[in-house]
Amino acid sequence: MELARRAFTLIEVMVAVVIISIVIAALLQMMGNSTNIFSKIKKDSTIGQYISMLVSSQDYGFEDKKITLDQLSADFEFDSHLRRKLKSIKTRIIYTELESIDMSEFDENTSEEVIEEDESKQVNSSMIFEIGKSTLKFKDSSVSLLRLRIQ
Rounded CA gap, 97 and 147, in Å? Predict the structure, then answer.
């Protein structure tokens, strides 16, 4: 006589538990990667907004300075909650001059070669172009941009 099988064996239960564990581990890994990617995107977006404040400011960016983001964003209108948050974020602006071009070097009076040109092509020798890099440095990250100043 054959007996009817009424339960799972221990091996079958262990195999099912292992398969379910592998599936759960894979799902957790995918969720962790997604969370990490989204948090990095949010951080980059926030820093991009902070650097736009530096770009729009004529008072900051061409010298080394320690300030709060509230000072940097003085020209913007924010609600009081965001303004308090910006006051708590301290940053440091680091300016590095990369190159300075003095247009008087190209003045025809100082040039050895005499080139005949009409008056519309003459160079204004009083202008100085300064190319520099402004870095907005935070506690855990930094962002840089190139700046051009005409003097």
Answer: 9
How far apart are alpha carbons 89 and 144 in whole angstroms? Answer: 18
The secondary structure of 83-130 as a DSSP string is: HHHHHH-EEEEEEEEEEEEEGGGG-TTT-SS-----GGG---TT-EEE
What's the token pair of residue 149?
């100043």
Give the start-to-end residue ranges of the domains of the chain: 11-150
Q: Which residues of the chain have pLDDT under 50?
A: 110-116
Find all residues with CB under 8 Å of 142, minimum gap 6, and list them.
135, 136
Calpha distance 57→147 (Å, rounded):
12
* Strand blocks (E) in 15-71: 65-68
What are the structure tokens assigned to 120, written together?
Answer: 């519309």
